[in-house]
Amino acid sequence: MSSVSSAVESFSVVESFRMESFRVERCRRMKRISILGSTGSIGQSALAVVDAHADRLQVVGLAAGENAELLGAQIARYRPRVAAMASGAALDRLKHQGPSDVTFAGTGRDGLVAVASHPDADLVLCASSGTDGLEAVLAAIEHGKTVALANKEVLVMAGGIVSEAARRRGVAILPVDSEHNAIHQCLHARRTSELKRLILTASGGPFRGRSSSELIQVSPDEALKHPTWRMGRKITIDSATLMNKGLEVIEAHWLFGVRADQIDVVIHPQSVVHSMIELVDGSIIAQLGVTDMRLPIQYAFSYPDRWPALLPSLDLARAGTLEFGAPDTDAFPCLRLAYRALEAERSLPVVLNAANEVAVARFLEGRIGFTSIPLVIERTMDAHRAAHVATLAEVRSVNQWAHEHASEAARGVELKV
Amino acid sequence: MSSVSSAVESFSVVESFRMESFRVERCRRMKRISILGSTGSIGQSALAVVDAHADRLQVVGLAAGENAELLGAQIARYRPRVAAMASGAALDRLKHQGPSDVTFAGTGRDGLVAVASHPDADLVLCASSGTDGLEAVLAAIEHGKTVALANKEVLVMAGGIVSEAARRRGVAILPVDSEHNAIHQCLHARRTSELKRLILTASGGPFRGRSSSELIQVSPDEALKHPTWRMGRKITIDSATLMNKGLEVIEAHWLFGVRADQIDVVIHPQSVVHSMIELVDGSIIAQLGVTDMRLPIQYAFSYPDRWPALLPSLDLARAGTLEFGAPDTDAFPCLRLAYRALEAERSLPVVLNAANEVAVARFLEGRIGFTSIPLVIERTMDAHRAAHVATLAEVRSVNQWAHEHASEAARGVELKV
Predict the structure, then answer these.
(1) By the CB < 8 Å criterion, does A314 face chain B?
(2) Of the four, A370, A394, A410, B84, which is 20 to 30 A from B170 by CA?
(3) Which residue numbers in chain A have pLDDT < 70?
(4) Minimal Cα distance from A189: which residue of B?
C-alpha cells in the first residue's frame, strides 16, 4: 500500500527534492569521462562500455575527426557538455544537424585540448589517431585527470615529456592497448624490483610465416585483413609489418619504466594471451581474455575497481590451442628498427614514428610496396642526427623533418605502375 | 693499506666480536624452516632451494618416514636442531649412523608435531605424505608459524578445522602444490570480491583421451608414467585417475574460500600454465613456468619477497604449443566424485580421500584394476552417512571407517589372477 501511494505522490515537491538528492548522490559515484576520437573504432567501443555501465559512467566530452554525422548522433544520445571536431568544415556540418545544448570547443588540437581539460571530466580517454592528441593528453595531465591511453603515438613521440608530467602531477596513465593493459593487470600491486622482463604478445599479422621475398607483392587489401583484431587501417598495416609491436615496445618502456633489453616479443597468433610479465624468480604472470577492446577499455574506466563482464567468459577448452613462436625480424625489420630507436632514445623514436606514418600512407595509396615500408623508415632514421627532445615544440620540429625526409625517401622507391 | 691490515688483525678479540655480531645480524635475516617429509620428492626439492639460497634459509628441523640413510645424510649436511622419523625402527637405524648434535624428537605423529612446533622455526613445510601431517600442521599453526603446504590430505580431510585455526591465529598457509601456488600468485593483493572463478589446469595424466573401456586393462607401470611432472607413486596414480585434480578442487575451496561451482578444471597436457583465475570483468590471470617444484617451493619460502631464479626462464617460443580441453568425467569419474564430496561437505571429503588411498594401494599391489579405483570410492561414499566433523578425533574416526569400508569394497572387485 505505502509503496503504491508514494508512487502516486512522486511528483510532489518533496518527492522531486528527494529525487534531486538522489541524482546528486548518483552523480557523485559516477565517473565522468571525455573521449578523444569518439567516432573511431576505440571510441565506439568506449561508448558501448558506457551503454553497459550507464549507472557508473557519464560522458562529459566528445571529440572526433571528420565524421560529423556520427558525432552528431553521439551528442544526441550521450548529451556531453562539450564537443570538438578536427576541422572547421566538419564542425560546420555538425552544427547544421540541429539545435543542441553542447558547447562547441573548437577544432584541431585546440578543440582536443578543450575537451580533454573540461573541468567536469574525471578521466580522459585518448583514442584519437596520430599525433594530434599529444597536447590534449598533456593538458589532461596538467588538469589532474586520469588518462586512459589508446593512442601509441603520444608515448612514442613524447614519452619522456608525458611520463614526467604525469609523475609530477601524480596522475595515473592507464593503458588501453590490450598488451599494455594486460601488463598493467599482471603487475597489479607488485614491486618493480620483482620484475625481470615484459613479454609482449604479437599476433604476427596476416603475413606471419612468410619470407621477405614473399612479401614484396602483397597488396594493401591483403595487409588490411588482420587475423584476430578488428582495428583502424593504419594500425592494421602496422600489425602486418610488426611496427605496431615495435611502437608498443617503446610505449612499454615509458609506461612501465623498463629498458629495451627487458622487453621481449613473442608471436602468438590466437591473441588470447594479451601479454605477460616475468618476475625475478622465473614465474610468469599472463593476462588472457577474449579479443574485444571493450574489455581493456572497461578496465581503464573501472580502475581501481572491476565491474561485471559485458561479454561471455573466455572458454579456453574451446579455444583449444595456443601457439607461441619467435618473431622473424628478417622478414619484418620494423620491429628491429623500433628497438634501435628505443635504444638510441632521444629523437629517434619520433623519426621512426613519423617515417612509418608516411610509409604506411604511401603503401595504402598503392604508391610503394609493402617491403618498402621498413626501407623508407630505415633511410629516414639513417639520415637523422639524434638530438634531445625536451619540449613539444622540439618534438613537432623533428616530426616535421622526418615527415618531409620520409616523403622524399618514399618517392625514391615508388612503384612503376 | 687499511683493508689489508684489518684482514691481518681479523682474529683479534675485537674482530671476532664483530664477526659474532655479523652472524647474529645474518641469522636475523635468515628464514628458519622445518621440513616434514624431507626425504621425499618435495622434501629433496626444498633442500635444493635451501642450497641455492643458503644465505637466506636455515634448516631447523627435518622429519622423514623410513629412509634413515638419506635423513642421516641430510642431518650431516644441514645440521638441523631437531629430527624425527616415522617408526622406532627407522629412528634406531638413524641413531646408529654415528654421533650428531641433533635432538631426536620422537616418532610418528608426535615426532612430526615436535619438529613442526620447534621454537626456532619460522616456517614449516608440510611435505609428508598421507594424513600423518594433520596434527603437525595444526601444531605449527598454534605456534604461530607460517605453513607451506605441499600435502593435499591435510585440507581435504580437515579443511574446516585447519583454515579456522589459521584464521584465528593469523597464520598464513602458503600452497606449494603448483596449481594452488599459481592461484596464490595470480590473486596477489586482489580483493576476493573481484574473483569470479578459479581455473585449475590438469595435465590429464598418461591416459588422457582414452575411453573408460580402454582403461580397464592399464597396468600400474603404465599409470606411473606421468607425462610432465615427476612425483611420488601415490600422487602419480592420482594424476592418472584425475583424483589428484579432484583433491585439488577441495583444497582450493579451503585455501581461497570459493564454492565448488566457482572452481573449474581444464585439461592442459603441457603443464606450462599452472593455473588461472577469472576476475568479475572476464579478465583471466594465469601463472606460467617451467615444471619444476623448486619454483613453488621457493615462492613459499621467499614470500612475500621473491628471490632470484634458480632455473632458466621458461621459453614460450620454444614451448611452441599449449593445448586446452575439457576433462572427460565419464572416463575419469574420480573428478566428479570429488565435486560430489565437496558439495556435500561435512565428512564426505574424508571418506573420498580415505577410500582413494585404499583403492590406489590395491591398484599398485596389482589386486584391483584401474577402473575399479573410482568404483571402490563411489561404493564407500554411497555407504557413508555424512556427518559434521568438528574435531581431529572425528576426522580420524571417519577416516578409519572409510579405510575399513573401502578395503571391504576393494575385496569385492579383486582381479582373478
Answers:
(1) yes
(2) B84
(3) 1-28, 229, 417
(4) B189
